[in-house]
């Protein structure tokens, strides 16, 4: 595991709004030791889709990249990081179209729902 110090233009970025919402979701899980795994998988409207899930930090693999936000950790595998490097994860609480927003500088195209992309 490689732990990275977050800088404004590197790795996976997390907005304060997204951080607040993730902390609320983690509290609902009842385990304050969970981290967030972010990655990509084949599929979706544009070829690749984003994935996120809570995970125990002890499940992090040796080659995972870890980004630390005031003690909260985001984990990403190296293959996904090739597509997600520079990603900004935000949260929008609008009644229509709300949820997590992915701003990915590596995406050549995105679908209308914003949950998948192509490179």
Please give a structural write-up:
- One of its GO terms (molecular function) is protein-macromolecule adaptor activity.
- It holds the Pfam family Fe-S_biosyn.
- This is Core domain-containing protein.
- It comes from Hyella patelloides LEGE 07179.
- InterPro entries: ATAP (IPR016092), ATAP_core_dom (IPR000361), FeS_cluster_insertion_CS (IPR017870), HesB-like_dom_sf (IPR035903), IscA_plant_cyanobact (IPR031108).
- The protein has 119 residues and is an alpha/beta fold.
- It has a single domain, classed as Hypothetical Protein Aq_1857, Chain: A, CATH 2.60.300.12.
- Helices cover 18% and strands 41% of the residues.
- It contains two helices and ten strands.
- Strands 1-5-6-3-4-10-9 form a seven-stranded mixed sheet. It has a three-stranded mixed sheet with strand order 2-7-8.
- The longest helix is centred in the N-terminal third of the chain and has 14 residues.
- It is globular.
- About 5% of the residues have low confidence.
What layout of secondary structure does this protein have?
Layout: E1 2-5, E2 13-14, H1 16-29, E3 34-42, E4 48-56, E5 65-69, E6 72-76, H2 78-84, E7 88-92, E8 99-103, E9 109-110, E10 116-118
Parallel strand pairs: 1-5, 2-7, 3-6
Antiparallel strand pairs: 3-4, 4-10, 5-6, 7-8, 9-10
Pfam families: Fe-S_biosyn (PF01521)
GO molecular function, one term: protein-macromolecule adaptor activity
InterPro entries: ATAP, ATAP_core_dom, FeS_cluster_insertion_CS, HesB-like_dom_sf, IscA_plant_cyanobact
């Amino acid at each position: 595991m490689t732990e990275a110090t977050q800088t404004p233009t590197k790795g996976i970025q997390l907005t304060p709004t997204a951080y607040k919402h993730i902390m609320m979701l983690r509290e609902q899980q009842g385990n304050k030791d969970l981290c967030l795994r972010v990655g990509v998988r084949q599929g979706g409207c544009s070829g690749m889709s984003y994935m996120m899930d809570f995970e125990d930090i002890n499940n992090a693999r040796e080659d995972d990249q870890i980004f630390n936000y005031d003690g909260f950790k985001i984990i990403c595998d190296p293959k996904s990081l090739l597509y997600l490097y520079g990603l900004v994860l935000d949260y929008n609480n609008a009644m229509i179209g709300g949820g997590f927003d992915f701003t990915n500088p590596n995406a050549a195209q995105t679908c209308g729902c914003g949950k998948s992309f192509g490179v």
